[in-house]
Write a structure and sequence with these properties.
Strand content: 15-25%
Mean pLDDT: 90
Distance between the termini: 26 Å
Order of helices and strands: EHEHEHHEHEEEE
Low-confidence stretches: none
Oligomer: single chain
Number of strands: 8
Length: 167
């Protein structure tokens, strides 16, 4: 698993906390420590090296920082190549929003927030139960709660939900 906490790296204290907590969660579900490689997007990982991983996991944090780093180092093309080679992409919070065409829903034409365009929909994350989906966007919108995710396959996308309670 290629573990990408870059979106949280703008704040060093928060970065260490988030990276530790999320890596601990991966370990708790049975992923072996030796199978997790942490990488901050900085241009040092080649496409060839990235393609050796089966899973890429991009965490949350700052949307603008993640977007800037992904573009600056050409990591957008690496992610797309991995996805189109049937590697599993897991995004958390902003890491999932990176898959949209643009993740500034108030200005979807703002190139600073251009996403990867891997899903033909918009979504908001960390929404309260009952938050309505927006109807003013050019693509469908989904307001995701903490226990929900979007699963994307070659057949399209759908909402999945967990009964687990988060603290």
């Amino acid at each position: 698993m290629l573990f990408i906490p870059t979106a949280a790296m703008q704040n060093e204290i928060k970065a260490k906390e988030i990276t530790h907590r999320l890596k601990s969660e991966l370990l708790s579900v049975g992923i072996l420590d030796d199978n997790i490689t942490i990488h901050d997007i900085n241009g040092s990982l080649t496409e060839e090296e990235a393609m050796k991983f089966d899973i890429i996991y991009v965490t949350g944090g700052s949307a603008s920082y993640l977007a800037r780093r992904v573009k600056e180092f050409g990591f957008d093309e690496i992610i797309k190549k991995m996805v189109f080679s049937n590697k599993v992409y897991v995004g958390m919070s902003v890491g999932s929003m990176l898959c949209m065409p643009n993740f500034n829903l108030d200005d979807v034409y703002n190139s600073e927030f251009e996403g990867l365009g891997l899903i033909n929909a918009y979504f908001s994350v960390h929404c309260e139960k009952g938050t309505p989906n927006r109807c003013d966007l050019t693509l469908p919108h989904i307001a995701l709660q903490e226990n929900q995710a979007i699963e994307v396959t070659s057949d399209g996308y759908g909402l999945i939900e967990s009964n687990l309670q988060y603290e």
